[in-house]
UniProtKB/TrEMBL annotation:
SUPFAM superfamilies: (Trans)glycosidases. It comes from the Eukaryota. Keywords: Glycosidase, Hydrolase, Signal. This is glucan endo-1,3-beta-D-glucosidase. PANTHER family: GLUCAN ENDO-1,3-BETA-GLUCOSIDASE BG1-RELATED-RELATED (PTHR32227). Residues 1-23 form the signal peptide.
Length: 388
């Protein structure tokens, strides 16, 4: 307790809350998917995340065992309202209020829930019955947070796939699909009112796997390449992710929302896949995720929006052995099911995390002088700020 009191001004300097609600406070986050029967417990996951200094986390539901495990950890989490509940939440405001009470309010403030993702890849998806209820669900969930006085703490969003775009290449031609637009525009109008970003699931891997003959893999992997030139923007792109983000900005501008921020809510590269999935291997997955981590650490924007620092949640924390679909769907994890690393991009596995935490505990019990503890504390905090 003495150490915490000593460093109180330092905490105020770096962690004073900002006025507007913001679910993503760093640049690097991760998606914690759990469609698997062999992954570590939520308590072990907390150990892994803290050892890796990953602070921003997204889950696809509001599982109480996860929310309890995250209590008191300082990790910032976005919970998900699954697509299967959208119809109910849209038609019944009381159900939305109860959902927020049970899955958000009851865990605050100890569990730092900072966002609610209402549905995932709804617009542009194949379940057309959900397109018309998404906005109603978003509004009812937001109104519930407002009624509970949580609207300045918890941000509301929904993630979109590239299926919402009619055109995305070159980036300056980005435009929403006509069928999607009638649902997208009122949704964006509401998000603009409440200060929410446009959330994009962007996968250079999927683009490359779909057309390996015409896409330079180095362009998809952030590796040295001639890149592309956008004649309308008069800009050069040396990697595909920046181009995908700027295509989203272009579509937003075309729709009249040129002030809205784009956040990447999913991106990653499969370390294994079916024979038909070009590029799905561990070498490419390591290259993409290692280079992406370096790119995000620079805290820079895209060619078209250089002042808008790119933020991205990586997909995913673990390989998930029960996911349906192509083999690639099961093999996006930075970590294997046992908590060991899938490939080395600078993180340590669960065992290394345990040992490092034990080492920290041992050092703290050896009665270090206050001045030495200050140096130790600051040296451990700086990487956390840098990578989070």
């Amino acid at each position: 307790m003495t150490i915490l009191r000593f460093f109180c001004p330092f905490f105020i300097l770096f962690f004073t809350p900002i006025a507007s609600v913001q679910a993503f406070t760093g640049t690097y986050g991760i998606n914690y998917g759990r469609i698997a029967n062999n992954i570590p417990s939520p308590d072990e996951v907390v150990t892994l995340l803290r050892a890796a200094k990953i602070r921003n986390v997204r889950i696809y539901d509001a599982d109480h065992s996860v929310l309890k495990a995250f209590s008191g950890t300082g990790l910032e989490i976005v919970v998900g309202l699954p697509n299967g509940q959208l119809q109910d939440m849209s038609s019944n405001p009381d159900h939305a209020l109860n959902w927020v009470k049970e899955n958000v309010q009851s865990f605050l403030p100890d569990t730092r829930i900072r966002g609610i993702a209402v549905g995932n890849e709804v617009l542009g998806g194949t379940d057309y019955s959900l397109w018309g209820v998404l906005l109603g669900a978003v509004k009812n969930i937001y109104n519930a947070t407002k009624k509970l006085h949580l609207d300045q703490l918890v941000q509301i969003s929904t993630a979109n796939s590239f299926a919402v775009f009619a055109v995305s290449y070159p980036p300056s031609s980005g435009k929403f699909d006509n069928n999607v637009n009638q649902y997208m525009k009122p949704l964006l109008e509401f998000f603009q009112q409440i200060g929410s970003p446009f959330c994009l699931n962007a996968y250079p891997f999927l683009a490359y796997a779909g057309d390996p003959e015409h896409i330079d893999i180095n362009y998809a992997l952030f590796e040295p390449t001639k890149g592309i030139y956008d004649p309308m923007y008069h800009l050069h792109y040396d990697n595909m992710l920046d181009a995908q983000i700027d295509a989203a900005y272009s579509a937003l501008e075309d729709a009249g929302f040129d002030k809205m921020e784009v956040i990447v809510t999913e991106t990653g590269w499969a370390s294994n896949g079916d024979q038909s999935e070009a590029g799905a291997n561990a070498t490419n997955a390591r290259t993409y995720n290692y280079n992406l981590r370096k790119r995000l650490a620079k805290r820079k924007g895209t060619p078209h929006r250089p002042k808008n620092v790119v933020k991205a949640y990586i997909f995913a924390l673990f390989n998930e052995n029960e996911k349906p679909g192509h083999s690639s769907e099961k093999n996006y994890g930075l970590f294997k099911a046992d908590g060991s690393i899938s490939y080395d991009i600078g993180f340590h596995g669960l065992n290394a995390g345990h040992s490092s935490l034990l080492s920290l505990k041992n050092i703290n019990t050896q009665g270090l002088s206050q001045s030495y503890m200050m140096v130790f504390f600051l040296s451990s905090l700086i990487p956390l700020i840098f990578w989070s």
